[in-house]
Design goal:
The chain is mostly helical. 62% of the residues lie in helices and 0% in strands. It has helices spanning 2-12, 17-36, 55-75, 79-82, 85-94, 99-103, 110-128. It is elongated.
């Protein structure tokens, strides 16, 4: 937090009060946008293997991606530090419903399991309740 104060002080030097106010307004708007705007709807296409998922799996994947984006922003971490794409695909395909289901995957990092296991199960469970008519369309399968 002290670093933010140093940056703010450096930004104010040599600026008029009006310019400082405008800079603060721009920063506040950008922060609001980052916090409240949802991630792009089609980021699930970028997860390797996502083309193999059915509509329910895509819904789970999109929910997990949204959670990961929010968690990464809160913690100030890159997305893959929160949860990597291979685990996102695994969770979307398997759709575990119990903590023991998560523990079956030996490659699942234990710290992530301890810290976020219940949250991941909740996100998956919520995506599983989406009505059939509201499910996203799966990726078209390329026969090549």
């Amino acid at each position: 937090m002290d670093h933010l104060l140093d940056i703010a002080k450096a930004q104010r030097e040599g600026r008029t009060p009006e310019a400082c106010g405008e800079l603060a307004k721009i920063c506040a708007e950008e922060l609001t946008r980052l916090i409240h705007d949802p991630p792009p709807a089609d980021t699930w296409h970028e997860v390797p293997g996502s083309h193999l998922l059915d509509a329910r799996g895509v819904a789970v994947l999109k929910a997990l991606l949204s959670w990961r984006e929010e968690e990464a922003m809160i913690r100030g971490l890159p997305l893959h530090f929160v949860l990597g794409n291979p685990l996102l695909f695994y969770l979307s395909r398997r759709r575990p419903s119990q903590h023991s289901d998560l523990e079956e995957n030996r490659r699942f990092p234990r710290p992530v399991l301890r810290q976020h296991g219940e949250t991941l199960l909740r996100v998956i469970a919520e995506a599983m309740t989406i009505p059939e008519g509201d499910l996203p369309k799966p990726a078209p399968h390329d026969a090549r």
